[in-house]
Structure formats: C-alpha cells, structure tokens
Write a structure and sequence with these properties.
Layout: H1 3-25, E1 31-32, H2 34-44, H3 46-72, E2 79-80, E3 101-107, H4 110-178, H5 184-218, E4 229-230, H6 242-252, H7 254-275, E5 280-287, E6 299-305, H8 309-378, H9 384-419
Parallel strand pairs: 1-4
Antiparallel strand pairs: 2-3, 3-5, 5-6
C-alpha cells in the first residue's frame, strides 16, 4: 500500500467519526430541570388521573352510605310501589289485576348501617393512598430515565472529545509515518480505538431513542414531540444518616401508608360484620281497589330476617382472615421497603467513595501519565501505542466517574421515593 493513499484513507475515516459523534451529542431544544419533568408528569400522567378519579368515586360511595344511615334514622312514610308480586287480598272474591295501589315501609337499625359507612370511608382512604403510590412511582421512573439520559448526553461529549483528540494524535503519527519514522500498525490500532468510540456513540444513540419515547409517554407528550434534553448531572450531598432515612420511610413511605389504610379498612370490615347481628324486619300493605262490583280490601305483609349462626360465623371468620392477611402483607412490605432504603444508602456511600477516587486520584494521575507519555513521544522516547493507551486510560476513568455519578444520583432518587423526602 502506498503511504500517501494510506494517509488519505485514515484521515477520511477520522473526520467521519468525529462528525458522527458531534451529531449524536447535539440536542433538539433547551434543557429542562428534573423538577420540571417530575411536575409535568404528576400533572399530566393518565395513571395518576385515573387513580384520582377512582378515589373520588369511592368518596362519593362513602357519602352515599353515610347519607343512607342518616336517612334510616328519620321517620319513614309509606312509598307507593307497583313492582314486585301482587299480594293476595283479604277477600273471598278475586280482585281485578289491573287496579292495585300499594305502599310499603322497611325499617333498619341505624347502628347497623353506621359500621358499613365507616367501611366505605376506609375504602375511600385506600383509594386516596393509591394516588400517592402512583405519583411516587411515576416520579421515580421519570427521575431514573432523566438521569440516565443526562449520563448518556455527557458520554456523547466525552466520546466526541476523545475522537477529536485521537484524530489529532493520528494526524501527528501519520505525518511521522510519511517521513518514514512512524508505525503503520500503531496508526491502525489508534484508528480501531477511534472506531470503538463511534460504536459506543451509536449504541448510546439507540438507547437514547428508547428512553425518550418512554419519558414522553410518562409526561403524556406526543411521540413525535421534540426530545426532552436533560441538564448535566451534578453530585448531590446526602443529608441524613441511615437511621434518619429509615424513620422517614417508616412514616412517609407511600406503600406503607397504603398498607396502613388497608389494615384499618379490614378492621372496620370485621367490626361491621360483627355488628350485623340484629334482626331485620319490614312490613308493607296493599290496598286493591276492585271497583263497584268488588269489595275493597287491605293486605298487610310482615317480613323478618333472623341472622343464622353458621352464616354469621362464616362472615366473621372470612373478615378475620382478610384482616390477618392485611397485617401480614403490611409487615412484608415494611421489611422490603426498609431493606431497600438500606441498600440504596449503601449505593450512595459506595458511589461517593468511587467518585472521590476517580476525581482526586485516578483521573488526575492518568492525565499526568498521558502528558508524560505524550512528551516522551514528541521527543522520540515513547512509542505511539503507549500514548494511545495512556489516553484511553484517562477516558476510561472519566467514564467510571460518570457511571458512579449516575449510580449516586439514581440511588438518591430512589431514596426520595422510599422516604417521601426531597433529598436532591
């Protein structure tokens, strides 16, 4: 292969790689803060809206049961009714089927309805707690995707800078090679490393497309709307020790609060079933009008519902088992949520330590090694391959720092969901 042809081929590939990395790192609009993205999701997400409507429906049901209990405690008047089977009249003759006026009255014990009113209110509280679960879950997803996008965009910049620096080094080596002093194998190796950076950028670009689609759906934006450009990630200090975070999670965690409401609802259900042991009775009358040829008459009916022991015992047993199940589920959720708090706390501390090692040790040391190798190369004391390896080490440690930063901020976002506290 002729040297001039080889030089032209490598330079064309170098410029193409740099342009690709720059295009991938360009955004399509102004960046938005993470808090604005979360607020937009909370206001527009359809899952949260659906949970809110379910809560309002349950609240109306609770008001209806309460109103019924209050209504039953008031005096009743006879209600005209033409429904139901026509009763037999007190008469020795048949009554015509087309003329029938009837009235009925059914009385309930107010104390029997009040426990069920409390059950309906507790069930409405469960639906309200579900809104907080949906809201915190959606916010956690938005934060996680937002931070991942911010990391990928910062990786775009890192790969773009790496490709540009590698291009400058390759051009220098190509100049030496044209004078018979460089190494073709080392230039090809450098070109391979630059192509790897391009491959990473391509893979990241594909991941960004998927994350953008998911994030737009969470924010209830159209799929073809402009991309959401995140701000650059910055390290956030964790405030509070593990014990404080566990206490906050125990009192403010949305899942644990929902479990508490569930236990209260099942307890109210059990109380209502136990109170539902009173005898129910109702009475009614009919006044058929037979016309001139028939005698008018009254029919009085009386119905009584006497609770059966086995039926009530089964209801009480079922309600008791549901209450125990709610207690068990609440206990399991508590252990899981608090354990997750501890895990995320450990991730934060480990990521902080790794970031410190990278920023204060590995990155400056690798940069010093690279500059030393580059100076030696310029004075013909180091090989080109040694310079490339030192440069790649620096890029790798900067990538490690960004990954640790992503883990740190993502763990903080999860802790916010678990504790119900703003930590970032």
């Amino acid at each position: 292969m002729r040297p001039d042809f080889f030089i032209a081929l490598v330079l064309v590939a170098s410029r193409g790689t740099i342009v690709s990395a720059q295009d991938a790192s360009q955004g399509h609009g102004a960046s938005i803060p993470i808090s604005d993205a979360v607020a937009e999701a909370e206001n527009n997400n359809t899952q949260i809206a659906a949970a809110d409507h379910a809560w309002h429906a349950s609240a109306h049901v609770a008001q209806l049961v309460t109103a019924l209990a209050e209504l039953q405690s008031m005096p009743h008047s006879a209600n005209a009714s033409a429904e139901g089977p026509r009763p037999v009249a007190i008469s020795n003759r048949n009554m015509p089927p087309d003329k029938d006026i009837s009235g009925s009255q059914k009385l309930h014990d107010t104390a029997e309805l009040r426990p069920w009113s409390e059950v309906a209110r507790r069930e409405a509280d469960i639906q309200k707690a579900q809104i907080d679960i949906y809201r915190s879950s959606i916010a956690d997803q938005v934060k996680t995707i937002y931070l991942r996008l911010a990391y990928l965009y910062q990786m775009y910049d890192l790969d773009d800078r790496g490709a540009a620096d590698l291009a400058a080094l390759i051009e220098t080596e190509l100049s030496r090679y044209s004078l018979g002093m460089g190494s073709q194998a080392e230039v090809l190796h450098a070109q391979l490393e630059r192509t790897k950076l391009l491959r990473e950028t391509t893979l990241q670009h594909e991941e960004v497309g998927g994350l953008q689609a998911t994030l737009k759906a969470l924010l209830h934006r159209p799929p073809d709307s402009p991309d959401i450009i995140p701000e650059s990630i910055a390290a956030t200090s964790l405030k509070g020790a593990a014990g404080e975070l566990l206490l906050k999670a125990g009192s403010q965690n949305p899942t644990l609060n929902a479990d508490k409401k569930m236990v209260e609802a099942q307890d109210a259900q059990l109380d209502a079933v136990r109170a539902d042991t009173n005898t129910n009775f109702s009475f009614g009358y009919t006044f058929p009008q037979g016309g001139e040829s028939y005698r008018d008459g009254y029919v009085l009916s009386f119905n009584m519902k006497i609770p059966r022991g086995k039926y009530l015992a089964s209801q009480i047993a079922a309600a008791s088992e549901k209450l125990e199940n709610a207690h068990a589920q609440a206990s399991e959720d508590r252990l899981r949520e608090l354990s997750d708090v501890q895990k995320q706390y450990v991730v934060v501390l480990s990521a902080e330590e790794l970031m410190k090692e990278c920023s204060e040790g590995l990155i400056p040391q690798s940069k010093a090694v690279y500059e030393s190798k580059l100076a030696g190369y310029q004075s013909d004391r180091e090989k080109f391959s040694a310079v490339i390896q030192a440069f790649l080490d620096e890029i790798t440690f900067e990538d490690d720092y960004l990954q640790a930063l992503l883990e740190h901020e993502t763990a903080l976002a999860h802790l916010e969901t678990l504790t119900g506290e703003k930590l970032r």
